[in-house]
Specification:
83 residues
């Protein structure tokens, strides 16, 4: 069922984030930043440049990459300790 849950979040993230209420919008932009895939870049292309949105995109993207890297290093360390 995780595959279906990911698919739902992916589809939600492809819609403009302004369609959703504040709680769901916060969730898809920051907690599970799937809206950064399509919604925010599309907003930047359609509307005049907003420096806040661009900075938010950079911060969330960088923090997601750092979090994934930290998790990867932790997972490899755990794997090596068991082997």
């Amino acid at each position: 069922h995780f595959h279906e849950l990911y698919y739902i979040f992916y589809k939600v993230g492809q819609r403009p984030d302004r369609l959703y209420g504040p709680i769901l919008r916060y969730f898809i932009l920051f907690v599970f930043p799937v809206a950064m895939i399509a919604s925010v870049p599309a907003t930047v292309l359609i509307e005049p440049a907003n420096i806040l949105i661009l900075m938010m995109l950079l911060v969330v993207s960088a923090s997601s990459i750092l979090a994934a890297n930290k998790f990867w290093n932790w997972a490899v360390k755990q794997y090596m300790m068991k082997g």
